[in-house]
Amino acid sequence: MADASPFTPATFRFLRDLRKNNDRDWFEANRERYERDVREPALHFISDFAKCLRRISPHLIADPRPVGGSLFRIHRDVRFSADKRPYKTHLGIHFRHEVGRDAHAPGLYLHLEPGDVYAGAGVWRPPRAVLAEIRDALDESPTAWRRAVSARGFAAQWALSGESLKRVPRGFDPEHPLADDLKRKEFVAITGFREREACAADFPQRLERAWRATTPFLRFLTGAEGLAF
User: Fold this and answer.
1) Which of 11, 85, 109, 112 could connect to 22 by a Cys-Cys bridge, CB 3.0–4.6 Å?
2) What are phi and psi of 164, to 5 degrees?
3) How far apart are CA 92 and CA 114, in angstroms?
């Protein structure tokens, strides 16, 4: 069983303060708080959750490296953005599939932000070739898809999210029974939590149970890509 949640109200306090003071001088003056209240708890969570993750799928990876692992960088990529604020005001953790090297690989995601705590599962903004494979799988196995997204545990707490096309993509019947799903540009499911739940002792166990419920959904997506789950 996983240890108690390493996240505390101090985690969210720092992120709230960063939202109000999103500049390098403030961050450097508060770097010790960031390390103590945000980064170290996140790395501890990743390391400790590895055993829970193996019970969900042996092909999902919990990588506790400070750089290049499961923890997303706090620094924003502002090269092509009009928004030049240097830091993200949320904490992001991604448990990727073993074949994946980036956020577009199938996997699980945890988002901690003041007033917006949620878990995600699926494939976020997949490249065109992967998106085509998933759409082909929907077209060829509609019953398996419906079974996956209507499974009791999944349907009770998870909701499909993400961007969609305005029209059914070329090559598929506009009247296809899964037209709305074929229009999806990403295949992501979301379930929400409260800040106090993220700080509660049983949060890792609650998160494991929630992610276990996504197994039929993730198995369909990884199968569409020819990956093991």
Assistant:
1) 85
2) -140, 155
3) 12
Contacts of residue 224, Cβ cutoff 8 Å, sequence gap at least 6: 133, 134, 136, 137, 138
As a whole number of angstroms, the distance between CA 135 and CA 196 comes to: 38
125: in domain: yes
For the chain, helix (H) and strand (E) counts, in that order, are 11, 5
> How many Å is the maximal CA-CA distance in the chain?
58
Assessment of whether the complete model's pTM goes beyond 0.85: yes
> What does the pLDDT look like over 107-154, one tens digit per residue?
999 999 999 999 999 999 999 999 999 999 999 999 999 999 999 999
Distance CA 11, CA 203 (A): 15
Count: domains in the chain: 1
Per-residue pLDDT band for 2 (boundaries 50, 70, 90) equals low
- How confident is the model at residue 4, as a pLDDT? 84
In a domain, 203, yes or no: yes
- Give how far the C-alpha of residue 115 lies from the chain's centroid of Cα atoms, to the nearest Å: 17
Q: Residue 19 domain-assigned?
A: yes
Instruction: Examine residue 32 and state whether it is found in any structural domain, yes or no.
Output: yes
At residue 106 the predicted structure's pLDDT band, cuts being 50, 70 and 90, is confident
